């Protein structure tokens, strides 16, 4: 058996190794689905119940928790620390930060319908990127599926009257799709390229993500250094309940990020996209789990980490 569930080593027997990879893929996928659904409700509590609306700050807390989690896992012997070149890990951190930032702006500049349809294009984008990065070509059936998907998105978006005058919004959405696809493809390809396990790669890239998110938080959030009002980060009322909700959200974010890397490492970015999107989108509908959660009366939240791009919503919620 391997050193740890995030290890790159496997059983000596080929058949045993194949079975182990299969169990690892299924287990990682289940962990991703469960943790992503759980973080939906945790973030609902953070944003709506306790009114902590500092998106970049929460993402920073998630990144810090993930980085500390990797340090703790290494100390417990779950994986061996492997020093990786910064030239390889910094771009991965930049891709992570990029997709968070650009999806935020996409939601601000576009209607929610366009925002949601843009997310559908991540899978075709991953396929195209994998052709260039890993020389992986989709099957004929997969190609037909992606063509139909793109045509469906095109037909749906042309009916939006705002598209003709919102070229900036479309450009931002396209950039967000590219960053998302790049992040997912690199999450898989760099594990193979650097011969590093999921945990080893996360251990090396998350500190860079923390540094980048720290800068974004300082620039984009109302810190309240001079005047800590209740609507600022330093003036927020960190009650026991609010603090607990933030901590739970951060711990779930660690599981989401870890299971994302484990799943992509055991399968592929395309398999991850298709497998995770389907069960997560199924509950969306009349109440329960929806695609977004209101952060204020006009706009909703965009994704925070990994595949956590679903939010809890009440029936009749107006997302725009």
TrEMBL record:
Which topology term describes how it sits in the membrane?
Answer: Multi-pass membrane protein
Work out whether the entry's keyword set contains ATP-binding: no
Keywords, A to Z?
A: Membrane, Transmembrane, Transmembrane helix
Span-the-membrane segments of this chain are 23-42, 54-77, 89-107, 113-133, 140-158, 170-188, 238-258
**Compartment(s) where it occurs, according to its Swiss-Prot or TrEMBL record:** Membrane
Q: Does the keyword Transferase apply?
A: no
What coarse category fits the chief subcellular location reported for this protein? Answer: membrane
Single GO cellular component annotation?
membrane
Q: What's the protein here called?
A: Sugar phosphate transporter domain-containing protein
Q: Which organism is it from?
A: Symbiochloris irregularis
């Amino acid at each position: 058996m391997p050193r740890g569930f995030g290890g790159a080593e496997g059983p000596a027997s080929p058949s045993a190794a194949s079975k182990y990879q299969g169990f690892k893929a299924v287990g990682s996928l289940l962990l991703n689905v469960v943790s992503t659904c759980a973080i939906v409700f945790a973030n609902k509590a953070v944003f709506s119940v306790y009114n902590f609306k500092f998106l970049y700050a929460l993402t920073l807390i998630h990144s810090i928790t993930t980085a500390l989690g990797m340090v703790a896992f290494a100390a417990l012997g779950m994986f061996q620390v492997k020093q990786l070149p910064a030239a390889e890990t910094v771009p991965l951190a930049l891709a992570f930060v990029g997709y968070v930032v650009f999806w935020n702006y996409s939601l601000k500049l576009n209607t929610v319908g366009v925002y949601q349809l843009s997310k559908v294009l991540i899978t075709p984008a991953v396929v195209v990127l994998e052709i260039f990065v890993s020389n992986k070509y989709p099957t004929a059936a997969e190609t037909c599926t992606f063509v139909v998907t793109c045509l469906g998105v095109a037909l749906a978006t042309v009916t939006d009257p705002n598209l003709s005058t919102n070229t900036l919004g479309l450009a931002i959405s396209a950039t967000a799709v590219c960053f998302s696809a790049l992040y997912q493809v690199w999450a898989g390809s760099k594990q193979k390229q650097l011969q590093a396990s999921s945990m080893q790669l996360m251990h090396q890239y998350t500190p860079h993500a923390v540094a980048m998110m720290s800068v974004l938080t300082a620039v984009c959030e109302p810190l309240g250094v001079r005047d800590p009002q209740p609507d600022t980060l330093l003036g927020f009322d960190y009650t026991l309940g609010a603090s607990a909700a933030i901590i739970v959200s951060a711990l779930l974010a660690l599981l989401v990020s870890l299971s994302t890397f484990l799943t992509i490492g055991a399968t592929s970015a395309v398999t991850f996209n298709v497998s995770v999107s389907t069960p997560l989108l199924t509950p969306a509908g009349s109440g329960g789990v929806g695609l977004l959660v209101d952060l204020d009366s006009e706009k909703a939240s965009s994704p925070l980490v990994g595949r956590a791009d679903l939010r809890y919503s009440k029936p009749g919620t107006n997302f725009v």
